[in-house]
Amino acid sequence: MAFSSTPPALQIDPEAARRLLEPMLPRRLRACLAQDLRVDSACSEIALEITTLAPDAEALVSAWIAARTSSDGLLWRDRRWIARRSALIRFLDVLAVERDQPVARALADVATLLSCAGDDRRAAARLAQPLWQEREAVLDLRKGFAALAEAQTRLALGRVAEPGADTDVTGATDLAVALQAAWHDALKDALLTFSEKTSSAIAAAAALACGVDDAFAGDVALVHALVPVGEVLTRPVADNAATRERCRWKMIEARLAQNEARRREKAATVETTAQIPDADVPYAEVPKGHVLVVPTIQETGSDRGKSIARGYEHIIGKPLPLVEVPDLAAVRARLTFEFPYAQAMIDRLLADLIGREHATFRPTLLIGPPGAGKSRFVARIAHHLGLGLWRVDATRDAGASLGGLDRRWATSEPAHPIMAVARSGTANPLMLIDELEKAATRADHGRLWDALLPMLEPETARAYQDPCFQTETDISRVSWLGTANEVGNLPAPLLDRLRELEMPAPRHADLEALLGPIVARIAEDRGLNPAFVAPLDGEAITLLRRSWRGGSVRRLMRLVEAFVTARESLAVRQ
């Protein structure tokens, strides 16, 4: 018997689609978006995961759970609870860097969500960046909707008749197609809900990190505060979304009409525009792990375009490789040997690379007293990661020349990140902006601070309009690390784009730990193998302790160099 009627449109319970997608969400977002999350049971579950991952953390986990259950006051203000949660989170952060385990960092973030109050600015700042990065993973779930819908259809009907099957199963085939389409629509609706709540959580984390005062957030766990607070913050945006979408589509239609008119006009002319380097291949295919930083360049009607491109032929129109993240544990060990007094800052900076394939840091400002070794630290981290380093001295840089000079001028040159890319031959070099707070404040020729702003934003950096090449370039993978003694005179828009990390000055107690790397550096500067330079003896260390009371590493290095030179001179005379 053949079925000729078309089955009615089917609908799937949105809750079923939500339950199907929720386990696929990244760990942090799954905790934030769980509607029925109970903090006590969630703490017990994560405690079991932590002890499974790191059995030596059992004592910290037990103390964390015990402090929660025994608190007799407001949990978020209990000093014993704060101390134990901080110890556990710190342990997981160090474990993530030492063993290069992203799961440890994720567990630390979930513990932060469950342990901190909604008005905790540091906790919110910690979660803002990871949540933003995981938003892309939520959007990527749509790629598997077809397979999920087909699997759910097979579970419901037993089997799906293939197209072209016998006529007596046509009705069953139509029902399967309708059911699969219904599942696909339900999954899209569930993803839209998750995406909206994710945006709310990200907005709340960023706002709370900046000190937004919300009475509700102070009384609940951070995991329960993010979505409600974010929905309040984003409500005006949601109310105007439909209007903006209509305007956007009108603009797109107008641009399409303009592009079509230009295409027809261009097709009617016989003039062709030469390109650099090869007009026959306007864009190279970009393989995985590469970035097309500078596309082809248009000539201006003379050989001026060729002179501008001279020296940059190896990057124009050619995909450039990204430097991969090496063994983070080994990098951490080398950096802590050279900078034993800055271990906490090293861990926070290297945390950006956990779980990443390619080395790119968030825009960061290292703040510390003169002589703390900030510039040296940036140079060493670039060396150990294999990144090309480009140094800009903010005290001498000619204002906005950092962003490039227009090709109309005889002194035109590309933006400094493009020059760094050309020198290193990679798409993710490291930019060091030294003494950032000492940059010139006059705006006669533009300010360095203002030129930095569009290059620090990921969206504008992906399409940075280089004034020399006069084309959109992609410098979004370039890392920016700045140094400063203080931030009092830096403009607020610049500080909003920079993460601030404190570079402590070495203490008197760090003297012996610093002697090894300083002697090795002196040997390296003299072209010697550090193994052939004898360490300083007890008498020299005693004299150094009297002469150096902590502070400037440069002063300590001069003292050590004087001892090494005197020892060598004495050995020659004898």
Automatic annotation (TrEMBL):
Presence of keyword Iron: no
Transmembrane segments: none
Coiled coil: none
InterPro entries documented for this protein: AAA+_ATPase, ATPase_AAA_core, Lon_Prtase, P-loop_NTPase
One Pfam family hit: AAA
Chain ranges of the AAA+ ATPase domain: 360-507
Protein name: ATPase family associated with various cellular activities (AAA)
